[in-house]
Amino acid sequence: MNNKLELKKEIINSRMQSINCIPMSYTKVSEGINSEVYKLESKQGNYVYKEYKLGKSSKDERIKAEVDFINHLQSNGIDQIPKLFNYRLDELWSIQSWEEGEKLEKPSLKDWEELYAFILVLQETKKSSSASSLPLAADARFDLLQSISLTKEKITDLRRLSEQSKELEILRNFLEKQIIPSFEQTENKIIQELSKSNIRYIKSDELIISPSDVGFHNVIKNNSNKYIFMDFEYAGWDAPSKLICDLILQPNHIQNNQMIDFTINHFKGKLISEKMISRIRILANIYRIKWVSIILNIAKKKKPGKYQLEIQINKAKEYFSETKDAIYYIENKLAK
Fold it and tell me: For residues 324 and 284, is the Cβ–Cβ distance under 8 A?
């Protein structure tokens, strides 16, 4: 274990030399399925060292998406983001500034307004030269039926996995009794809606620049009371309806009815049109189920621990229950 740690330090040191920095301390901040993040302290200041893990393909695009997005924002004078000091796409690492501050566990209305202001500032860069080279955001779909198909694939994969082991029976029951019936009901409603509306496709001039993995888990209020937005591995061009649904339904900060109205009214006429509100109304439950699948990603591990699996399944059940009122309000009460 110590040998592994020392080897990691050697690798980090060699890469930090590229910015003439020698770390004095190393603290692993997080490690997930997508990346491994360290806080490095040095005489010059504190830094983030980030290693990106390969996804399904051998050529993973998360680091490129983040680097391109940060460079795009910096070239357009947006400074509410970490500074990018160095990176290597081929070696899947980057060095960014470390931002001291507080996580916004219970965001106030002002905190939401600052987040929304950042999203709107991003749209002011749409016509800049660097915007055209930005990728599509992760899971971006501009055909409503493709949005349905993407979530259907995620649920189908989970159902297939749940049938491979007796230990996953609790997952299978949850999917078959709650998630799949809810999905199929929404799918049928959407198909009926499409026959009498023009909301199926999003045109290129309706796309927005999105941070994608949006929410206060990726926001820090620094020691100067400045809001810093971070983690752009999935950022790029996206559908406004997807971003709004994610803001409303993000598991850490599910919005109540009053906040849903605030969100819609804040962006109406700026980011979303009546057409997009119609898409939000019929797609909200699809994105809710997408979040359920993300919470249940642990089941995709080769040998998920039984205890960990039960915790995530319970989290998914709680989330699905806690978002019931929001979905009802969006589908039935959102101004038509």
Answer: no
